[in-house]
Amino acid sequence: MPRAFLIDTDTASDDAVALLMALGAPDVCVAAITTVAGNVSLEQGTRNALYAVELCGADLPVYAGTSKPLMRAHQDATWFHGQDGLGDHGFRPRHRTAAAKHAVDAIIETIHANPGLTLVTLGPLTNIALALLREPGIVAGIGRTVVMGGNPCCEGNVTPAAEFNIWVDPEAARVVLHSGLRVELVGWQLCRGEAVLSPAEIEGVLSWNNPRARFAIESNSYARQALMTQTGEDGICLPDPVAMAVALDPSIGTAWYDHYVDVETRSELTRGMTVVDRLNVAGDPRNRPRWSSLLDRPPNARVCWAIDVPRWKELLFSFLR
Ligand code: RIB
Ligand code: CA
């Protein structure tokens, strides 16, 4: 019986590779893709998702969702992914168009139609938050929730304190984290260092000389330059495909712990910071001073602290050969 996936995405170059993985997984049925403003505008992200669906020869609905965060102006990441989000190479859908229904309605209906599905979020959590606010009971219908987002106890990538998906809409992230969903949090730190595709691995993928392999690399050409500028690393950093790999095979996450996680929404300095109670100082009375204001905050998320890098890459490559 194939596993039902629902994917919410702000489709830019790394999201698109994650979509190729899910759409190519033999034991997965992607029931729907929903799009949200994030890396690029809602309209552009929707076009990019439709392009990925066409490239895979898949036939499933793509629903456009919200064009801005719950309470803030939309701020994109075209500085990292290119103006069109796919490296500005002219990748655009030939004939597919988005389904008429709004993504928030589609999320609720898809969960009802596929009880126990795996929800994978690759962008800001605006759509998911709105669906939860409208119908909190959908929590019971979701089997796993894999969130690409956050920077647990480490540096951010859009500010010193925050990772992009959470930073764009921190209020939405708080709604999701306090909804009762069993969130599996896959932070951006997991896709750095050894997990980055090296120049040699990039050449290897290109040598397979097929449309998916070429697209995976070409659409990330702008991101490769941006990574070099941002961190000095030469390669392609793929946070969404890492999260998708964990969604497809949870054992690729090799260190998981339950923690209380919350998100800063008031300070501009630390807006979007995922505050992770790594030592459980807020959950265990024995661990905290009596004056602590953080009382009785039990774990609300499973945080992934490490992945099996060779197995992450092998799974990715298996969809590009
Ligand atoms: O911080 C990385 C995340 O933000 C990825 O999902 C990337 O696509 C952007 O949405
Ligand atoms: Ca994304």
Report on the structure:
There is one protein chain. The protein is of the alpha/beta class and 321 residues long. It has a single domain, classed as Inosine-uridine Nucleoside N-ribohydrolase, Chain A (Alpha-Beta Complex). 35% of the residues lie in helices and 17% in strands. The protein is built from 12 helices and 10 strands. It has helices spanning 13-24, 42-55, 78-81, 103-113, 126-134, 164-168, 170-177, 199-207, 211-218, 221-231, 239-248, 309-318; strands at 3-9, 28-35, 62-64, 117-121, 142-148, 183-186, 253-259, 261-263, 274-276, 301-307. The strands form 2 sheets. Strands 3-2-1-4-5-6-10-7 form an 8-stranded mixed β-sheet, sandwiched between helices. The protein has a two-stranded antiparallel sheet with strand order 8-9. β1, α1 (13-24) and β2 (28-35) form a beta-alpha-beta unit. α1 packs parallel to α2 (42-55). The protein is globular, with a radius of gyration of 18 Å. The model has no long low-confidence stretch (mean pLDDT 96). Residues 9-10, 12, 15, 38-39, 122-123, 240 line the site of calcium ion (CA).
Characteristics of this structure?
binds calcium ion, globular, two-stranded antiparallel ribbon, binds alpha-D-ribofuranose, Inosine-uridine Nucleoside N-ribohydrolase, Chain A, 321 residues, alpha/beta, 12 helices, 35% helix, 17% strand, 8-stranded mixed sheet
Q: Summarize this, please?
A:
The protein is α/β, with parallel strands linked by helices and 321 residues long.
Write the layout of secondary structure elements.
Layout: E1 3-9, H1 13-24, E2 28-35, H2 42-55, E3 62-64, H3 78-81, H4 103-113, E4 117-121, H5 126-134, E5 142-148, H6 164-168, H7 170-177, E6 183-186, H8 199-207, H9 211-218, H10 221-231, H11 239-248, E7 253-259, E8 261-263, E9 274-276, E10 301-307, H12 309-318
Parallel strand pairs: 1-2, 1-4, 2-3, 4-5, 5-6, 6-10
Antiparallel strand pairs: 7-10, 8-9
Helix pairs in contact: 1-2, 1-11, 4-5, 5-7
The structure holds alpha-D-ribofuranose and calcium ion.
